[in-house]
Design a protein that fits this description.
The protein folds into two domains: 137 residues, GTPase HflX, N-terminal domain (Rossmann fold), CATH 3.40.50; 110 residues, P-loop containing nucleotide triphosphate hydrolases (Rossmann fold). It is 44% helix and 17% strand. It contains eleven helices and eleven strands. A hairpin with a 2-residue loop joins strand 2 and strand 3. One of its GO terms (cellular component) is cytoplasm.
Length: 337
């Protein structure tokens, strides 16, 4: 494992008086690289460099104030079903976690529920995958009721397949009072049922949000002001540009996902035409489908815009790969890109 030690003392997450010390790892598998290259049929492959992936993963971790004490790239031939990385790498990581007193290990890669549980057991530390980390960021960034609803829905969909029993007995809860209650259901079944009910309520609430937003868009269309939606990779500078164009004071900072809730402001262009600019959540590579679906209400501001302005940070060495990621998400939203 190519290890790097980093320290980011600003704004660490604290649980009581204890700062969360974290390791950030980027698993890289040769099997996936060769498959991607083969699928290109000889065309040029725009693939994010491993170092760039590590830098982005560390940026995601820093966005929630983790104290990153170790980071690195973990190479392998193929993912292992039980622990994603090989047994030797797990043992090496276990020693690092113990010696550095690490409480959280972030894998910049999807983890199955089984892999996550096995790794937490082996490492004796909390484990998050890329999706879980992004959800943590979204949970901290959401400010509006709509944003909080969307984050909760995405989080519940993520957790739905990760419910595990926290006890060892196999007895079943009784489904009613006395001897007439019937066999009932296991605790895990009860948890899943309650989770599904909550998801349905959230989807209903978000549908109401969509209808309200649609009414607002209908009213805006009656006014002669076209909507220009700013889209782009996270931390590409959308909010900074939005503030310069509109004179607004939207939170703009060198952080991934600094903007989560959409903001609209009217501005007058130099030739006198009034337009409405929309600042939207930034995109990121490997954005899970259910997360995109949860933020559909927000992303509809992009879908309904007359102009979609793609903001790119051309100084970023991975600008081209980022542009492809943004284009893919826009195409998933049926927007020509």
């Amino acid at each position: 494992m190519a290890e790097r030690k980093e320290s980011r003392p600003k704004g660490p997450i604290e649980h009581g008086s204890v700062i969360t010390r974290a390791a950030v790892l980027v698993p890289v598998f040769k099997q996936f690289q060769s498959r991607d290259e083969a699928s290109q049929g000889g065309s040029e492959l725009v693939r994010r460099s491993d170092d760039a992936r590590l830098e982005e993963a560390m940026g995601l971790a820093a966005a929630i104030g983790l104290d990153i004490v170790a980071s690195g790239i973990v190479s392998g031939v193929r993912p292992r079903p039980a622990t994603l990385i090989g047994a030797g790498k797990v043992d090496e990581l276990k020693g690092l976690v113990a010696s550095e007193e690490i409480g959280l290990v972030v894998f910049d890669h999807p983890l199955t529920p089984v892999q996550q549980r096995n790794l937490e057991k082996e490492l004796d530390a909390k484990v998050l995958d890329r999706t879980g980390l992004i959800l943590e960021i979204f949970g901290q960034r959401a400010r509006t009721k709509e944003g909080r609803l969307q984050v909760e829905l995405a989080h519940l969909n993520y957790q739905r397949g990760r419910l595990v029993r926290s006890w060892t007995h196999l007895e079943r809860q009784r489904g009613g009072a006395g001897f007439l209650g019937g066999p009932g259901e296991t605790q895990i079944e009860s948890d899943r049922r309650q989770l599904q009910e909550r998801i349905k309520r959230l989807e209903k609430d978000l549908e109401s949000v969509r209808r309200t937003r649609q009414l607002h868009r209908t009213k805006r269309k009656k006014a002669p002001h076209p909507v220009v939606a700013l889209v782009g990779y996270t931390n590409a500078g959308k909010s900074t540009l939005f503030n310069r164009l509109t004179g607004a004071d939207v939170f703009a900072k060198d952080l991934l996902f600094a903007t989560l809730d959409p903001t609209l402001r009217r501005a007058t262009l130099p030739h006198g035409t009034d337009v409405i600019f929309s600042d939207t959540v930034g995109f990121v590579s490997d954005l899970p489908t259910h997360l995109v679906a949860a933020f559909r209400a927000t992303l509809e501001e992009v879908i309904e815009a007359e102009i979609v302005l793609h903001v790119r940070d051309m100084a970023d060495p991975d600008s081209l790969a980022q542009a492809e990621d943004v284009g893919k998400i826009l195409r998933d939203l049926d927007i020509d890109a």
